[in-house]
Structure formats: structure tokens, C-alpha cells
Specification:
Length: about 325
């Protein structure tokens, strides 16, 4: 079976992205399941190799077809954005510009089917702003690259998969977003996303209020919005149950009772996954024409340039991209 090609944008040069990427290319086990292709700047990669002390060589190519895909060699496109000294751990407009251009190019390679998925490294919102990049983060950039509005995010850690009804909203606004129409729409979207990944099984919708509201005793959202949406989805043939109390649903899913959980607001699902295993919680964006996985941590400026950052999350992101890319791209 042909191994999937995973495109990796280098991330903010002033953060830990370059260092954890070097450790990812040095992880020999990854070469058994995929080929990796880097988009970045040669100068930044050379600095990262120097900092980590890893025995890695660089192979600059103009297209993916000329990559060697050999252990110990980093096949990469050199975009030539950062070509000289910069300061680690500092907001920098040039580094912000570079991080955006790395992602843009990696996304273009994915849209052109030259890579089978991308695994993204951390970027910094302040550096993006300093560079006048008109996007606050990966999701907004991916919307532009893919042409897909509101890409669907899923977290995976071991056997726990969590979708999110809303992302970066205040808690007050997130509660207002829990409507019949939105819950029903997301049950359908999440089911389709699971099918694309090749995952089968029942989806559980988390409860919003304590004990899922106790029939209105602790809130009416379950009675008026959530349960009717679930029942309508069931009538339409969707394999979904709930609402299941948020104090137990994530545990039950981790033990295999449910294939996925629809979290009703940002922190509800983030707390569950990251408390269980912070480093191995991986973000998957899977409603675009290409699959994207990502570390779910930041640029960690305090660790940048010191060879103290853990690469566990980045390695897991590449593993998940390799795991799902064959199913995702089967059509």
C-alpha cells in the first residue's frame, strides 16, 4: 500500500515549531506509515538542526515529486522568507508572515493532491497581526485556502473523539448557540465527518446543564432544543443518542461505548480531552477537501531556541494524519 504524504508547514520560526518538527523528522517509526514533506525556510531549519543537535540532512526541492523520502533527510520547499537572524521567543512580523506563507503553500499542495494531508505546527496570533496577516489563526486561513466556511474541528486522544458545537465564543454566546437547528445540523455534519474518516459507531450528544437539566429542573435547553434535535436526527436514521450528562459521557466514550461525542461548547470538550492526556490530544479538521491535523498547543516562546520542548504532540499529529488520510481520500 502506498504511504500517504504528509505536508508539514514549519510554524512560527520564533516558536518551538521548528524544533519539534526536527524531532518529528527524526522519529524513525513515522517512516513506516507515511512520507513527510516540509514547507518552510532553509535558514530556519538549519538553526533548528543546530539547536536540537539531530543528525538530519536537508534536501531542497521545487516540487514533491523530487523528494527522496529517506530517513535522516528532510525533503522541503524553501520559501526564502526568513533568510537571516531573528530572535527566539519574541513577536516578530517577519516570522508571522513566514508562518502564514508556510501554511498557505502547504494547503495549496494539499488542494492540488500533491500531499495527502497536512499536519500543522504552532503559530502566534500577535506575530500574524504584526505582519498584517488578515487571519487570526489556522482555521481562518484554512477557510480561505479550501473555500470551506466554518471547517469542522474534532479532537482525538486515544479512543475519545470530540466535536464542538461552537468554538471561540463567550460562554454566554455559546449558550445562545445551543439551538434545535444548530444541534441537528452538527449531528449530521459530524456523522458525515466520521464516515469520511472511516469510523463507525454511535455518536453521543453531551448534556449542557448539570444532569442534562433533570427535565427542566436545572435548565430548559435539553427539553426545548437538544432532545428534540436528537430525536429528529434519529427519525432520519442517524446513529445518535443523548443528551448524556457531561460528567460521564466523555469517560464512556473513552471506554468505547460511543464512537464520538458532540460537545456543546468549547471548554466542555477541551477540558475532557486535555485533562486525560494533554500532549496526545490532537485537533483534526475534516470538512475540507483535504485532511488537516494539528498540535493543540501554542508557540511556547519561553521554550523556543532552548531544545526543551516536547515533540510528542507533533509526532501524534503526523500519526493521525497518516492513519486517516487513506480513508479520507478514498473517494
Amino acid at each position: 500500500m502506498k504511504k500517504p504524504i504528509i505536508g508539514i508547514p514549519l510554524g512560527d520560526p520564533a516558536g518551538i515549531g521548528p524544533e519539534i518538527t526536527m524531532y518529528t523528522f527524526a522519529e524513525k517509526s513515522l517512516y513506516d506509515i507515511c512520507n513527510m514533506f516540509l514547507v518552510g525556510d532553509r535558514y530556519v531549519v538549519e538553526k533548528a538542526i543546530e539547536i536540537t543537535g539531530l543528525d538530519l540532512k536537508i534536501n531542497i526541492v521545487e516540487d514533491v515529486e523530487n523528494a527522496k523520502f529517506e530517513y535522516g533527510t528532510i525533503d522541503m520547499m524553501d520559501l526564502g522568507v526568513v533568510t537571516g537572524p531573528f530572535e527566539f521567543g519574541k513577536v516578530d512580523a517577519l516570522c508571522g508572515k513566514a508562518s502564514y506563507l508556510y501554511i498557505k503553500k502547504a494547503g495549496e499542495l494539499a488542494m492540488a493532491k500533491e500531499v495527502d494531508a497536512i499536519a500543522t505546527t504552532p503559530i502566534n496570533k500577535e506575530s500574524l497581526r504584526a505582519a498584517d496577516v488578515p487571519y487570526i489563526g489556522h482555521t481562518e486561513m484554512l477557510e480561505e485556502i479550501s473555500g470551506v466556511h466554518d471547517p469542522l474541528t474534532m479532537f482525538e486522544v486515544e479512543d475519545l473523539r470530540v466535536f464542538f458545537l461552537s468554538r471561540h465564543l463567550s460562554l454566554r454566546d455559546a449558550l445562545d448557540a445551543v439551538t434545535y437547528d444548530r444541534v441537528l445540523e452538527y449531528i449530521k455534519r459530524c456523522t458525515e465527518a466520521m464516515e469520511r474518516l472511516g469510523v463507525k459507531g454511535t455518536m453521543a450528544v453531551a448534556g449542557l446543564n448539570p444532569h442534562s437539566g433533570e427535565h427542566g429542573l436545572f435548565g430548559w435547553e435539553e427539553v426545548k432544543e437538544i432532545t428534540p434535535a436528537i430525536e429528529q436526527a434519529q427519525r432520519e436514521g442517524y446513529d445518535v443518542v443523548g443528551p448524556i450528562g457531561a460528567d460521564s459521557v466523555f469517560h464512556l466514550a473513552l471506554k468505547g461505548k460511543y464512537a464520538s461525542v458532540l460537545s456543546l461548547y468549547h471548554d466542555q470538550g477541551h477540558i475532557a480531552t486535555k485533562t486525560y492526556n494533554f500532549e496526545k490530544t490532537i485537533s483534526i479538521t475534516n470538512s475540507m477537501p483535504f485532511l488537516r491535523t494539528s498540535v493543540d498547543h501554542g508557540t511556547a516562546y519561553s521554550h523556543a531556541g532552548k531544545n526543551t520542548a516536547s515533540a510528542v504532540s507533533m509526532i501524534e499529529a503526523v500519526k493521525l494524519a497518516a492513519k486517516y488520510a487513506p480513508n479520507f481520500n478514498r473517494e
